[in-house]
Amino acid sequence: MAYTAIDESTLYIQGGIILPPPGGTAKITSQFYALDLTQDWNATSPPWKALTSPTTTATQISSQSMTISPDRQTLTLWSVFPTVAVNYSITDASWTKVPLSVGLVISGSGLRAASDPATGAVYIPGVGPLNSNYMVRYNYLTGLVTLINIPMALVPTLDSYSFVWCQPRKTYNGTKMILFGGDGSGPSVASLSILDIPTMTWTVGKDAPDARSEMACAVAGDNFVVWGGYKEMLSVDSVAVPTTPLIFNIKTGKWTEKFVRGANGNKTEGAPGGVPGTGAGGGSGSGSGGGGSGSGPVGGGESPIAGGGSNIGSGEIVGGGGITTTSGAAIGGGVAVGVGVLAGIIFLIIQRRRQRSTKDFEMVSPSLSIMPSPAEDRVVQLEPISNESYQSKLNNQQQQQQEMSYNNVQYTPRSEPPGVSGLPPSYSASSRSRPVIPSYYEVTGIPGDPRELVRQLSR
């Protein structure tokens, strides 16, 4: 599922996989919903609005990503197999394809895109020529795709990661970041922690009513909103969570059933009310989630179907980060939301989700430049690749992966990836297997997903 929020005013959720009850058949969905964050509402009756779903199967996947244009009028969905992007015009509710080179292939089992709100440039780690370790920078205006090399020593694998662009926000002077939920080596947790950016101090908030993983989230005024996801269990498979959103009032430090927008951004000098200004942080999680939206909640109505990377169930939304169940719940991973982080890119290698095969568009191949290393400066033109050639390269990549040792560092679970020492004491990077989410091959019977091997190795 893909999700994003625009200027603390609207939360968008799209796509995912709807997982059925035991014995049922999973299905891919392209559901698309928006949640109004400018008006007051109750958690039992959130103002979801059904939007025009994409007409192509390219966005009927889980683990896709969504970015926003600088003018806040266009949403872009990014997918893979082949790398595909489609634009949604908020103004006229229409979908158009974005010309991309079919020579770019994702190297891991998930895709996260982040856009620079000032320039509109989109950055996507793990997408590039086959057998490479690059981050793509895409320029909408020129169609230029620039490849930025990612040092293997710093980032040995881009399988399972979270990637966002954070810019300063008005809320709390742009000094807070929230980390909620997720799961490490155990079940999902309901803990919440807040990081004070100036002092780099974590503080512990109150646990949520429900533990969740890989959910969608957004901040608006004093409200931290969570939707979808799933609950990881030790004794049984992942289970559904309620379809109603969770709401945390940052000012009072309490979970509530009422979303009260009020004035935008209470410019509090210290920590939010109810949360101490000092102390060790709590909260745990792996991955950042996303919920999806569906045709309506169980029992009818126009509301999303709870879900994270994938959906399990009927009447819930599923998306880039979780799974929803027939009872209207989602499955996802931990979520970190900047209430106002210094401008820049937060790059956490945590549990992520997998992408699915998609339908080809009539694409053109823009020019591609590789950022020069100290020893070279070159520009490479990518030629259009036929479906047969593209599939052949994917098959070659699968064969190379099969020759890898099972203990290859790329697939070895890490108890703590580099750079996470600054996380709350109770936070642990995931070392468990992924939730049991069906692959695209299992859902459709269509072979050719190179990430199926990654999925097998990760078990």
UniProtKB/TrEMBL annotation:
Q: Where is this region: Disordered?
A: 263-312, 410-434, 440-459
Question: Where do Gly residues bias regions lie?
Answer: 271-312
Task: Return the Low complexity bias intervals.
Answer: 421-434
List, as start-end ranges, the regions of compositional bias called Basic and acidic residues: 449-459
Keywords, alphabetical: Membrane, Transmembrane, Transmembrane helix
Annotated membrane-spanning segments are: 329-350
Q: What is this protein called?
A: Galactose oxidase
| Annotated source species | Linnemannia hyalina
